[in-house]
Specification:
Nucleoside Triphosphate Pyrophosphohydrolase; alpha+beta; about 150 residues; four-stranded mixed beta sheet
């Protein structure tokens, strides 16, 4: 059996699912994942909490101040076929957040385009299974009126 390619380490990352006051979800496009509608986010820095990462990445990538609500899903992606660097191993923490406004300022580096979607539109627009699954889980929780957020701090 061939050995898997060696990589530096598992990379913990955060996806920030940003909702506005009308419960629309902000989705973005950028060069790293090809032509897909995705979620702002990025690497967790040493000493930074998952929640602090979501706040920082939202500010850096789309210029929004957000309040994290909680983690909806956790996923692992080993050697993602759609990512520009295929020899990566990601551990995703997918958080829903509430935006304090809707004036988006994309960074022009990682994010090249954005759009606000209803949750149903976002579910149809995403071709990424991690994003689709997380949106679908959140929709089910909303419909049932029961949220099962993972909260790592008060």
């Amino acid at each position: 059996m061939p050995k898997p390619a060696r990589h530096k380490a598992v990379e913990p990352v955060v996806g920030a699912y940003i909702l506005d006051s009308k419960d629309r979800l902000l989705m973005v496009k950028g060069y790293k994942w090809g032509d897909q509608w995705l979620i702002p986010g990025g690497h967790i820095e040493l000493g930074e909490s998952v929640f602090d990462t979501a706040v920082r990445e939202a500010k850096e990538e789309v210029g929004l101040t957000v309040r994290p609500l909680g983690i909806v899903t956790v996923f692992e992606d080993i050697f993602p076929k759609d990512f520009h660097d295929k020899k990566r191993h990601f551990l995703y923490f997918e958080l829903f957040c509430r935006a304090r406004g809707t004036k988006v300022r994309i960074d022009g580096d990682e994010v090249s385009e954005f759009r606000w979607f209803t949750l149903r539109e976002a579910l149809r627009a995403s071709t990424n299974p991690t994003v689709s699954s997380t949106i679908s889980t959140y929709i089910k929780w909303r419909k049932a009126g029961r949220y099962q957020f993972i909260k790592l701090r008060p």
